[in-house]
């Protein structure tokens, strides 16, 4: 027996959510393939790149990194363990909080993050090339949605919610 889907879209390709789903899955496949030669998963890359980009003069905790990368703190902890096992990240005692540990990228981690980032940026450029001059408009639309999610608390980050409250 087949059913009928009640929808306001006469054509599935008119659904913004469905199209975002399709594009996201396609883009993620490209990024996974790009990162495979570096031995990194997508989330490992995101956390390693975010940590590499953060101010190394200020102690960075796991919570800080999770907020910066907008990732779940527990998942962040698991991924950091994997990066630590690969000698890409180190954990050290926090200078003022005995319960916390600070994070530092090793020289090998910095080198890998930079090589992988160049490949990811190249993959992004190739993937989004089809947008032509509309690429910046598309990026601006995504930034608007991201900011709205930050304000409403829908993207998981607490840093923007407390600033706007």
From TrEMBL:
<dbReference type="InterPro" id="IPR036390">
    <property type="entry name" value="WH_DNA-bd_sf"/>
</dbReference>
<feature type="domain" description="HTH marR-type">
    <location>
        <begin position="1"/>
        <end position="150"/>
    </location>
</feature>
<dbReference type="InterPro" id="IPR039422">
    <property type="entry name" value="MarR/SlyA-like"/>
</dbReference>
<keyword id="KW-0804">Transcription</keyword>
<protein>
    <submittedName>
        <fullName>Winged helix-turn-helix transcriptional regulator</fullName>
    </submittedName>
</protein>
<keyword id="KW-0238">DNA-binding</keyword>
<keyword id="KW-0805">Transcription regulation</keyword>
<dbReference type="InterPro" id="IPR000835">
    <property type="entry name" value="HTH_MarR-typ"/>
</dbReference>
<dbReference type="InterPro" id="IPR036388">
    <property type="entry name" value="WH-like_DNA-bd_sf"/>
</dbReference>
<dbReference type="Pfam" id="PF01047">
    <property type="entry name" value="MarR"/>
</dbReference>
């Amino acid at each position: 027996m087949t059913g009928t889907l009640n929808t306001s879209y006469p054509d599935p390709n008119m659904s913004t959510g469905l199209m975002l789903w399709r594009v996201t899955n396609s883009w993620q496949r490209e990024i996974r393939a790009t990162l495979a030669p570096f031995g990194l998963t997508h989330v490992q890359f995101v956390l390693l790149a975010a940590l590499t980009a953060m101010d190394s003069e200020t102690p960075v905790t796991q919570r800080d990194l999770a907020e910066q990368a907008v990732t779940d703190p527990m998942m962040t902890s698991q991924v950091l363990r994997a990066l630590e096992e690969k000698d890409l990240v180190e954990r050290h005692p926090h200078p003022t909080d005995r319960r916390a540990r600070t994070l530092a990228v090793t020289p090998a981690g910095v080198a890998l993050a930079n090589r992988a980032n160049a490949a990811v940026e190249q993959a992004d450029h190739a993937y989004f090339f089809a947008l032509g001059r509309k690429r910046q408009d598309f990026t601006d639309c995504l930034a608007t949605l991201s900011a709205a999610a930050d304000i409403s608390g829908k993207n998981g980050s607490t840093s923007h919610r407390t600033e706007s409250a």
